[in-house]
Amino acid sequence: MEARVGSKRTKWSRRSHRKSRNGCGNCKRRRIKCDEVQPACGQCISHDVNCDFTVQQHALSETASTGSTEAPGSRSTLAECATPLPYNGFTFISSSKTGFKLPKRRYQRRQATARETANAKSALDEVLPTPTIAQLQLNTTDLELFHHYLSVTSMTLADDDEGMHVLQVALPQLGFRFHYILHLLLAFAGYHMARLPSMGAPHGRRLEGDRHHNIALTQVSSSIAELSESTCHAVYGSSVLICLCSLARGPRDGEYLAFSDSDRAEWLTLLRGIRSITEASRDVFYIDPVSSPRSTTEARLLEGKPRLCHEALGPEWKESLKECEHLIGIESTAGNGVQHAIYKHVLTCLTNAFVHVYGKTEIGRGERCARTFQWLYQLPDVFVLDLQQRKWPALLLLSYFLVLLQQLKSYWFVKGWPEHVMGEIYRSFNAQQRTWLKWPADQIGWYPPSTVDDA
């Protein structure tokens, strides 16, 4: 028992070792034992790093040669030794006080061959999709236009929550798929900003609108040639936006909506282009910019058999329309029967438009706009040709249409157009014919200048 007790009380002594705090800084940071061999310890040599002993000896030698009184290991000396060292085109910066070089590799890395590089590139091409359309690039000015469209321009068009959703959500989302829609929205916003005196720089705003408008026209042209079920909605929407942009640019010399100084009216051609797209896509989806599919009145108008509505008109409007009908009747009956039937059809459609705009008490601004432009939308080709040739019966009916257009003055893009077109109609008439324009001119607030020639 005593032996056992004695054995338990035996204390195992640890082997003594020499403790030293004179190791190099690299070993201290790594918490490994330094052999303190100078001028470089074994650990630093094996890892190919600059040992503190070498740095200190280098500093001492330079101090002795220059006669400097600065202490070894001072800030200037250590800063010089801590200069980053380049390695294969890269620079490694050490966080320690001494310089640090990347440890050498045991084996050199083999350079990739040209074949291996080509194979890697082909494999990457298979993973990454190749864009089929040009990437949309927007600058800060474009973002400003888009912000203005969402926060200001869209609110000038919408009359209810549904319309606001279409303008602020549905159309921009469609524009992310079809970039020409987005370009047209930016163009429309640019023209709107050009019309606002508070925005400043109207010429520059208009130029930005023209830039996006021209880009969209190029892209829409290629889409029309490949009209399909997946693109017809976007093409139709772009056609409507193109017409709105043409109005938003403001009145221009030589352009008068339904006729022009050139071979054909730009805006009326665009509007009739919408009708062509609608007819081409009728079997694919239903588009009706005016009314619902159940509207029998719209169906009769599309069939070319309009019927006059029986709502009561105001005495002044009724008398003016009947006087216009009498003047055109005398002129058209002198010609062939086909021309008389065409003008009677156009006058009946115009009268129906007056009934819908003035004869109904509860009519929204959007429906009023649709009914107004419906008249231009459905003009026969023969009548359009007479407008372009500036025949007075056709221009007289157009002047009455301007009365309807003036009622849409709450839309900023309509402002200025009725007066602009009426002025050109007035200049196209002789002195006797100008007296027939008194009622429509008074309704839109246009008065002839005193210096207009009567020739």
Automatic annotation (TrEMBL):
This is Zn(2)-C6 fungal-type domain-containing protein. The keyword Transcription applies. One of its GO terms (biological process) is positive regulation of metabolic process. GO terms for molecular function: DNA binding; DNA-binding transcription factor activity, RNA polymerase II-specific; zinc ion binding. PROSITE patterns: ZN2_CY6_FUNGAL_1, ZN2_CY6_FUNGAL_2. Residues 23-53 form the Zn(2)-C6 fungal-type domain. Keywords: DNA-binding, Nucleus, Transcription, Transcription regulation. It comes from Aspergillus tamarii. The keyword Iron does not apply. Residues 1-24 are annotated as: Disordered. InterPro entries: Fun_TF (IPR021858), Zn2-C6_fun-type_DNA-bd_sf (IPR036864), Zn2-C6_fungal_TF (IPR052400), Zn2Cys6_DnaBD (IPR001138).
